[in-house]
Task: structure prediction
Amino acid sequence: MQAALDPSSGVPPWQRALQEAVRDPAELLRLLELDASQIAELLPGARQAAQAFPLRVPRAFVARMRKGDPGDPLLRQVLPLGRELAPAPGYGADPVGDLAAMNVPGLLHKYEGRALLVVTGACAVHCRYCFRRHFPYGEANPASGQWERALDYLAAEPSLSEVILSGGDPLALPDERLASLTARLAAIPHLRRLRVHTRLPVVLPERVDDALLDWLAGTRLQPVLVLHANHAQELDDSVREALARLRGRGVTLLNQAVLLRGVNDSADAQAALSEALFEAGVLPYYLHLLDRVAGAGHFDVDEAAARSIVDALRVRLPGYLVPRLVREVAGAPSKLPL
Result:
């Protein structure tokens, strides 16, 4: 899979696919071939919610959704709903304390030994449960000259051994920028690992091209890629091929999922996800309880139900296929295992 330019546009195919993502709720519902009554029920709320947090979903991801099914688990993750606009006690704009942990623009230092760079606010897909859907990316943008402050901070903290690229989605940036940033990180002697948190290889597998593999696997830093897949239906042949290319270049692959009501809140769904991930060479890592971000309360699964699901997984699966159930709490020194 070469990073060939599209001769009609002069951009790599994955960037063209990003540009062509579905942004109109009416188009999404038409592509799903829902009947007129279903569209009439969903569309007004979808349009209203999309004004607050826009719809964006690649067409390749839409193609994996079941036609005619408004309850499809992939559709539910991306379709705006009117209920997002209803106020919910206990839900806010910064549910995990990102802003308090931002020592310099774009750099979060919450946990010992690692720090996180918010390298972009762009994503290939707008997940409706996103815990950073209200994050002030404009104020926290470390791009351009502001990279210097973040890099200086990392260089001055010898306790740090790992840097995490996050966002948004870091792989939404061009490879030239990512390669340049990675080279500067590799020049900091006490850093040992580069971790990338991304959903692009799942929702837009053509992103895994030669240019990406060259900078990710060509650094002295040990590369770890943490994917975000929530349902086995997300992992089709194109995704498995992309993941095989990453593994072939020595990239460690992990997955973190979010437990979502109506999407994957059953032992059957979670077992199928773990099996599908492992068959694709990815180790299940975390299963997060929902971060209580404003607009996402309808996805919440209570802790007792979550524990019951994971208990069932321990009976059904070998231990290495059971993700760790965790909650992130603002100010805590680590993710809290449950």
